[in-house]
Amino acid sequence: MVQVNDFTFSGLHMAGNTSNVVGSRVTPVFAAQVPGLNTLGISMARIDFPPWGINPPYTHPRASEILTVLECSLQVGFITSNPENRLIAKVLQKGDVFVFPQGLVHFQRNIGHTNAIAIAALSSQSPGVITIGNAIFGSNPDIPSDLLAKAFQVDKNIIYQIQSRF
């Protein structure tokens, strides 16, 4: 009972609205948007950044990502797993590609003076996205502030301030 619309998506040619607190917009093309991707193990996304906009630290629990810069330059990186927690980072120019291994925390930032555009390909039709700040400080209900204060080695009042922003 499939139809042609189950296999198409229109809109990646249009810039996403980046007027938000982080300065980026991800336009996903996952199985939720294109049902024909279901069970194929692939998906993609367009990411738009104004100057100095970021895609804040996040992870895909079910996919690796390969990112291609289409416009401007991006600083990108990921953090290796414990105990090293080593930052692997690079500045990418138009046409450059970078790979983010599945499950590792990673980020992107536009370091140019014009809008940046990137396309991400992912190894899952439903990669999942966990934005670290949102997950830690914006959970519902809140993670107990004393636990976060101990984990981040800061005063509870700092945790309350951060949680109030999420």
Widest β-sheet, arrangement of strands: 1-2-9-4-7
CATH architecture of the largest domain: Sandwich
Q: Total number of β-strand segments?
A: 10
Total number of domains: 2
Number of helices: 3
Low-confidence stretches: none
Largest sheet: 5 strands, antiparallel
Evaluate the radius of gyration: 17 Å
CATH fold node name of the largest domain: Jelly Rolls
Shape: globular
The CATH class of the largest domain is identified as Mainly Beta
Q: End-to-end span in angstroms?
A: 42 Å
Name the CATH superfamily classification of the largest domain. Jelly Rolls
Structural class: alpha+beta
Helix and strand pattern: EEEEEEEEEEHHH
Global mean pLDDT: 97
Subcellular location: Secreted, Extracellular space, Apoplast
Domain Cupin type-1: 10-160
GO molecular function: manganese ion binding
InterPro entries: Cupin_1, Germin, RmlC-like_jellyroll, RmlC_Cupin_sf
